[in-house]
Amino acid sequence: MSMFLRPRWLLVHLVVAVIAVVFVNLGLWQLRRLDERRADNALIQENMAGPPRPLDATLDRYGHDPDALAYRRVVVEGTYQPRDEVLLTPRSHRSQAGHHVVTPLLLANQQGLLVNRGSVPYEDNTPPVEAAAPPTEPVQVTGVLIPTQTAARTGSAQASASRITYLSTVDVDRLQPQIDIPLYPFSVLLQQQQPAVELLPVPAPPPEVTEGSHLSYAWQWFIFTAILLLGYPLLLRRSLRAAAERGETDQSEASDPERLVRSTG
């Protein structure tokens, strides 16, 4: 066993130990991410379970704190501004490719609120979408407050266009320069509307509450650690046996981990 205490072997032991520590920490990091995800999910479920409240009352109670407002249900009244409509892409509905239609709603206080009105087919790809034209009269929208998200333009047509028509998420800051009315720093995911939506757009489902893949990733890292910690001693044992069978006396060869490992292959 003394050959495994020689400098080159000690370096190999150190590398294996470092890799094991890294694997364990990656597994623990995934578990921490899982705890954060569960806390976020609990908050989403709690906020979405509450009754819808007027937007003004919600803002009076919670201010403009994005974390406090996120996923609360609100009721707003206003008039749609379809000339400033944009599309979220790609989106799907019942496994069919499409887009989500986002239209500013002008409220009585002359502020705007971006409303994700729902899904339209992929072919309806030019806003304002004629097949999903909103009512021209004032509407009442019930929906879920969604925090603004930084998004990139999408689609080749956006490369040279100064006006954004396609986005991957509702990014209020990016859309504000092309919309004349001041926008609230969040959007609403429409659940109900009066007068009711006819055929299009189809209201999008509420935010999906899942734990993601964090637990399975954590298990993967812990399994990798177990394989490493169980497999490395076996490799050392095979290396020692191979050296003994050859009657190894040459210290330079016995101290070379790479040569010993190759000889056990």
The unreliable regions are 155-160, 249-253
In sequence order, what are the helices and strands, one letter per element?
Answer: HEHHEEEEEEHEHHH
Strand content: 15-25%
Q: Going across the biggest sheet, name each strand in turn.
A: 2-4-5-8-6
CATH fold-type name of the largest domain: OB fold (Dihydrolipoamide Acetyltransferase, E2P)
First-to-last CA distance: 20 Å
Provide the helix percentage. Answer: 25-40%
Label the overall shape.
elongated
Any idea how many domains?
A: 2
What is the CATH C level class of the largest domain, in words? Answer: Mainly Beta
Count of helical segments? 7
| CATH architecture assignment of the largest domain | Beta Barrel
Largest pleated sheet: 5 strands, mixed, barrel
**Overall mean pLDDT score?**
88
Rounded Rg: 29 Å
- Structural class, please? alpha/beta
* Total beta strands: 8
Would you mind describing this structure in some detail?
The structure is a single chain. This protein has two domains: 2-35 and 213-263; 72-194, Beta Barrel (OB fold (Dihydrolipoamide Acetyltransferase, E2P)), CATH 2.40.50. Strand 4 and strand 5 form a beta hairpin. It contains seven helices and eight strands, in the order H-E-H-H-E-E-E-E-E-E-H-E-H-H-H. Helix 1 (7-49) packs antiparallel against helix 5 (214-245) and helix 5 crosses helix 7 (257-263). Strands 2-4-5-8-6 form a five-stranded mixed β-barrel. The protein is α/β, with parallel strands linked by helices and 265 residues long. 38% of the residues lie in helices and 24% in strands.
